[in-house]
From TrEMBL:
Keywords: Glycosyltransferase, Membrane, Nucleotide-binding, Signal-anchor, Transferase, Transmembrane, Transmembrane helix
Pathway: Protein modification; protein glycosylation
UniProt record similarity statement: Belongs to the glycosyltransferase 31 family. Beta3-Gal-T subfamily.
EC number: 2.4.1.122
Organism classification: Eukaryota, Metazoa, Spiralia, Lophotrochozoa, Mollusca
Subcellular location: Membrane
GO molecular function, one term: nucleotide binding
Pfam families given in the database record: Fringe (PF02434)
InterPro entries per the UniProt record, alphabetical: C1GALT1/C1GALT1_chp1, Fringe-like_glycosylTrfase
Membrane topology: Single-pass type II membrane protein
Major localization listed first in the record, in broad terms: membrane
Keyword field contains Iron-sulfur: no
Top-level enzyme category: transferase
Protein name, UniProt field: N-acetylgalactosaminide beta-1,3-galactosyltransferase
Length: 289
């Protein structure tokens, strides 16, 4: 949002975004336009998040798909530890279609990635999403619905596999809540949605955690300061053991019982009706799977 230009966006730009190879801000009717600020001619409300995300992915595909290996979509209240993200991504081939983030377990055979925690498509994943998803009539939903769910459904239909973001100890790296909830205890809704079991305290997360949501500007600056300006005297990092922390694996499709949940605002029987799916341009998930 334009109203957040001097608050949220400034905090992002002055903290973790500085460590990206390329940053683009997609904003509805921005007053200050530049090569890094892209105008969205889409109403600025929650109901249009799917519309915006489809536009963003198509824009990245048209202008940058050959220039970068990975494409991160993050909110203006997401904080990302870029060094840890790069290390995690180094375990995967950008030419094998993939999609990674905080995996939720409902609404699709392979679930979907939380939008707030940030998620990434690799180069071939973005190609598939656009060429085999958005560009096929009635295959993916382009408007309405929940942005992250629709992105996950489209990715599945386009042959983009979900990639494992857990470390070898089954500890998450992406989180749908802020750093306090991440350490002290996630809310029940997050526990119910996340594919993998979560805990609290020292085992809440990987040492190489990557991202968390609901991070306001003040907290963003504080986290950035503690991560990059403070060192504990005598503390040794895990060294070469870090190279053994991730396995670079794909994630198997969800058990049917885990994903048999109606989409918000829809009935399961209605969803399996071809006419309803065509009107809402969403994908078909076989009820027998």
């Amino acid at each position: 949002m334009e109203i957040h230009w001097n608050t949220k966006l400034r905090a992002v730009n002055e903290t973790w975004a500085r460590r990206c190879d390329k940053v683009l801000y997609f904003i509805t009717s921005p007053r200050n336009r530049s090569h890094d600020v892209i105008a969205l001619d889409i109403p600025d409300k929650r109901q249009t998040l799917t519309d915006k995300t489809v536009f963003i992915h198509k824009y990245l595909y048209e202008h940058y798909v050959e220039q970068f290996d990975w494409f991160l979509k993050a909110d203006d209240d997401t904080y990302v530890i870029m060094e840890n993200l790069r290390f995690l991504l180094s375990h995967f081939d950008p030419e094998v279609p993939g999609y990674i983030g905080c995996q939720f377990k409902h609404f699709s055979p392979q679930g979907y990635m939380s939008g707030g925690a940030g998620y990434l498509f690799n180069r071939q994943g973005l190609r598939n999403l656009v060429e085999k998803g958005y560009n096929i009539p009635a295959r993916c939903r382009h408007k309405g619905g929940a942005e992250d769910i629709e992105t996950g459904r489209c990715a599945y239909k386009a042959g983009v596999r979900t990639l494992n973001s857990l470390d070898i100890h089954k500890r998450p790296t992406f989180f749908p809540s802020n750093v306090f909830a991440t350490v002290l205890g996630l809310p029940d809704w997050a526990k119910n949605y996340m594919r993998d079991k979560v805990t609290t305290g020292n085992d809440c997360c990987s040492q190489l955690m990557v991202a968390f949501h609901y991070t306001g500007p003040k907290l963003m600056y504080a986290i950035d300061f503690l991560l990059y300006r403070v060192t504990v005297h005598g503390k040794r990092f895990m060294g070469e053991k870090a190279g053994q922390l991730f396995d670079g694996a794909e994630v198997e499709d969800m058990d049917r019982k885990l994903r048999r949940r109606p989409y918000p605002g829809e009935d399961l029987d209605q969803y399996y009706t071809e006419g309803w799916r065509e009107r809402n341009t969403t994908i078909f998930i076989n009820p027998n799977l």
